[in-house]
Specification:
Distance between the termini: 39 Å
Largest sheet: 5 strands, antiparallel
Strand order of the largest sheet: 2-1-5-4-3
CATH superfamily of the largest domain: Transcription factor LuxR-like, autoinducer-binding domain
CATH class of the largest domain: Alpha Beta
CATH topology of the largest domain: Beta-Lactamase
Structural class: alpha+beta
CATH architecture of the largest domain: 2-Layer Sandwich
């Protein structure tokens, strides 16, 4: 049974309230996938990078990737690099706003498709990734870009999706933008994470302190501080401590509020 308008409004407010009070990316993602499924989009693929090179989508290793697609699909599409040849991903990389997947169908119907584009088409057909919308988010830096693909549940075609979008598209766009803003504001932890000591040492470097200053402040030897900084560089996969401070800052892993330091 369809919700009444007041009930729809209350559900939206409840969702936004839960998103604003969430303290982890995982919590936000669970809320968001459940909410989008209510609109008919049961598989999502979100990506955000603060290190997007010019004329390139960059590496997934430098991005936040969130998805509830089948692991085999993710393995081929994301980890296998096929996303770089996907029409909707390339659209999102260069645009802000929402775009129907009808564009994808038009592109896949062209005779001049390259081999990787054809592989994308076959992969999407195999996993039922055939109808949906993509949203490109507005970011403040030329190096930053975020976007999300909303895949319709099995049984819905693009005409069904257009009907859903005509009724709920504006709300869906707003909800996804709020989620993007919250995700990009929270600490992002990859396969390796900074320890409390490594984080504190980087924070003091960010405040302009020398190694000896930090050793005095933390009650450790200068050699131990150097070790913490070296290990922090390894965790963040950078060459210099200055790069480590920048990377940790971009990932929101330093200067955290007390209730987020365990995230």
């Amino acid at each position: 049974m369809a919700r009444s308008e007041p009930a729809e409004q209350e559900a939206t407010v409840d969702f936004l309230d839960a998103i604003m009070h969430a303290t982890s990316i995982q919590e936000i993602w669970a809320l968001h996938t459940a909410r989008m499924a209510e609109f008919g989009f049961d598989r999502l693929l979100y990506g955000f990078s603060r290190f997007k090179p010019p004329k390139s989508l960059g590496s997934p290793d430098d991005s936040i990737i969130l998805t509830n697609h089948h692991p085999d699909y993710v393995k081929e599409f994301v980890k296998g690099g096929l996303y770089q040849s996907a029409p909707m991903v390339n659209w999102v990389a260069e645009h802000v706003g929402a775009q129907s997947w009808s564009m994808m169908h038009e592109r896949m119907g062209h005779a001049d498709l390259g081999p990787d584009e054809r592989r994308v088409g076959r992969l999407n057909e195999r996993f039922g990734v055939i109808a949906g919308y993509s949203i490109g988010f507005r970011d403040v830096s030329v190096r930053s870009k975020g976007g999300i693909g909303l895949c319709a549940r099995p049984g819905l075609d693009q005409r069904d999706v257009e009907t859903i979008w005509a009724e709920h598209g504006r709300e869906i766009i707003v909800l996804n933008n709020v989620v993007h803003l919250r995700v990009s504001a929270l600490p992002y932890v990859s396969r390796k994470t900074l320890t409390a000591r490594q984080r504190e040492a980087l924070e003091w470097v960010g405040d302009g302190k020398t190694t000896q200053d930090i050793a005095t402040i933390m009650g450790l030897t200068a050699a131990t501080i150097e070790k913490h900084l070296r290990l922090a560089r390894e965790v963040l996969d950078v060459d210099t401590t200055a790069q480590a401070v920048l990377m940790a800052s971009f990932r929101n892993q330093i200067f955290l509020l007390p209730d987020l330091r365990a995230t």
